[in-house]
Amino acid sequence: MKEVIAKIENMSKAFPTGEGDFWALKNINLEFLKGEFSGFVGPSGSGKTTLLNILGSLDTPSKGKVEVLGNKIQELNQRQASNLRSEHLGFIFQTYNLLPVYNVYENVEFPLLLLRMDAGTRDRMVKEAIEWVGLMDKIKSRPNQLSGGQCQRVAIARAMVKKPDLVLADEPTANLDTENSLNILDTMLNLNKELGTSFIFSTHDPKVIQYLRRIIRLTDGEVASDDPAPGI
Amino acid sequence: MILRLAFRNIINNGWRSLINVVVISIVLIIMVWMQAMYYSWIRLAEIQQSEWEYGEGMLRVRAYDPYDAFSFEDSYAPVPGELKPGIESGEVVPVLLAPASIYPQGRMMGAIVKGMPQQQNILSFPSHRLESGSSDLTPVVIGQAMAKSSRLEAGDVFTIRIRDISGAYNAIDAIVDTVLFIPAPTADVGTVWLNLAELQRIRGAEDMASYFVFDDGKYRSFSNQDFRYIDRDEYFADLYQMLANERFQQVLMYALLVFLAMIAVFDTQALAVFKRRREIGTLAALGFTKGRIALLFTLEGTLYTMFAFILTPILGFPLFWYFASIGFRIPKGYDDFAIQGMTDTIRFTYPMHEIAIVFLIILAFTAIVSWLPTRRIARLNPVDALRGKVN
After folding, report:
1. Measured CA distances, B256 to B19, B27, B83 (Å)
2. Any residues with CB less than 8 A from the CB of B79 and at least 6 apart, and which?
3. Which of A80, A124, B101, B303 lies at a CB distance of 3.0 to 4.6 Å from A76, suitable for a disulfide?
4. Mind listing the pLDDT tens digit for each residue in B30-76?
5. Do B288 and A82 touch (CB under 8 A)?
6. Which residue of B has its CA nearest to A109?
7. Does the distance separating the beta carbons of B381 and A56 come in below 8 Å?
8. Residues on B contacting A at a C-beta cutoff of 8 Å
9. Which H or E run includes B145?
10. Domain edges within chain B
């Protein structure tokens, strides 16, 4: 039986507005198993990014419980949340969010610096991650010298370099053309298979949806359906 | 890691960083210049006064108060027996002073007449010029300031009237042997120098003196009913007081300069926190705590000062070199004020310990000013930061 890496129980999230609280997520109950390649699918405002942020300990639930890799998100202090992110989670953003002053190598190396590992191991892991995404020839390039697809591949390498238990990808293909989208999805799927890393996406891109093994549809902050992808 | 990132961000910030570094550097150059000027002025004053009046120590008659002209009349006492061997061996120079009236070209003016032995090697004063020749005229030496105020020149003859210690007036005809450049104003302004023995004779004060100058601190603990030791702090008290007054203005000037430089740094850092919200969110997502992110921004601001430390000697070199080698010329007329040290060109020496303190203060201010805008980071929600949302 596969290990549960994230569990959401009766979780709701409210944001204060001028006219009282707005409930972005309502009574969510979900479980994620190790090695899943799943995603939240839904239109803008359905709550998928909010859910991803809570799973990533960037935000906290207003009600209910969220447990990620044994950490109760609602009970974590700032330092514990930072440790969870730096040690176990990887993030991929729609806008890549690379550090503009660092080259490809340094961007990918960055999460490892937080883990205080020796230089030799770090170098090996960084080069391995850059090879996964096929950017060894761009290792010294800065983000402004790369295409959108290449930047997103660097972001994937950065998310994967420490071999996290869970990668959270927020609309990773939104700024990419079809070819680049499919490329990076292939890369992520390969890493999922090879390393057993769990991926959770937030997307409304059909290209991404066709890659997902589990599709969780969100509508107005509620889980409308939670099904294996067709053909699985 | 944080330092490297901060360094890269500074470099990447291009001309904005350069402006900050140059502004801080200019402030530092001005502060170093001012610091060196005050320091060099005081040092010069101490050296000149020591060479021309104080030596390495002074024993002064208790009745003498340099700020009270009425005390001069009684400023004499017998030479203590303990000092006589020192006087003979040249370790001690006795000086007798007396209030007098002088009559240059028939005009009358007040003066202080000081008698000094012809043979002495402690002070720079060329006392051999005071040797009486066969002439009836008593040779005297005056400084340029005295020459200017009395309109006396070398070779001029004038009358000096002195009251002896029993109250009777004596007069001598004196000839100006030399007009000297005396950098110590207290040895120049209103002062006529003549032979000690001659002055003792006229004053009726044989074997008496007003003060003694030493070539070392051997007599520091000497004291009797007539004389007491004047240490450097007491001797230079008015100079140090003047410096303290100047210091206040100096601190105000520094505060203004530092304030302007810090505004530039604060502005840059506040803008950076605002503009780089997405980066802040990314760093948070990668596992940076808010404290670490704040440290990164604080370090970036502090690095401006570090760079300025490197740039300051390079930018300031021509100025520093000029004032160290050519020097700061005292504007004409300043010698009339008789301010110690303000009589000659001041060649700057740079007090490294004081400059280091100034640098550390600037560094501390920059760190504080760079940290202030980062307080916003503590209030920033990482999710909002990732969206680049303004709180």
Report:
1. 18, 10, 53
2. B87, B94, B207, B208, B209
3. A80
4. 999 988 988 898 888 888 888 888 888 899 999 998 888 888 888 99
5. yes
6. B1
7. no
8. 1, 5, 8-9, 11-12, 278-279, 281-282, 284-290, 381-383, 386
9. helix B144-150
10. 2-50+238-387, 58-215
CA distances from A40 to A68, A149, A202, B126, B330 (A): 17, 22, 5, 99, 80
B134 has pLDDT over 90: no
pTM: 0.77
Q: Residue A40: which of A230, A231, A221, A232 has the closest Cα?
A: A221
Facing residue for A99 by CB, picked from B279, B284, B289: B279
Question: Which of B286, B290, B383 is closest, CB to CB, to A85?
Answer: B286
- Where on the phi/psi map is residue B228: left (φ > 0), alpha (ψ -120 to 50), or beta? beta
Kindly determine whether residue B1 and residue A114, on different chains, have CB atoms separated by under 8 Å. Answer: yes
B113: enclosing H helix or E strand: strand B109-116
CA neighbor of A200 nearest in space, from A23, A38, A33: A38
pLDDT digits (tens, 9 = 90+) for A37-49: 999 999 888 999 9
Contact state of A82 with B9 under an 8 Å Cβ cutoff: no
- Which among B11, B279, B383 is the nearest to A58, CB-wise? B383
Contact call for residues A129 and A161 (beta carbons, < 8 A): yes
Could you give the C-alpha distances from A42 to A20, A37, A45, A222, B67, in angstroms and in order?
Answer: 25, 17, 8, 10, 93
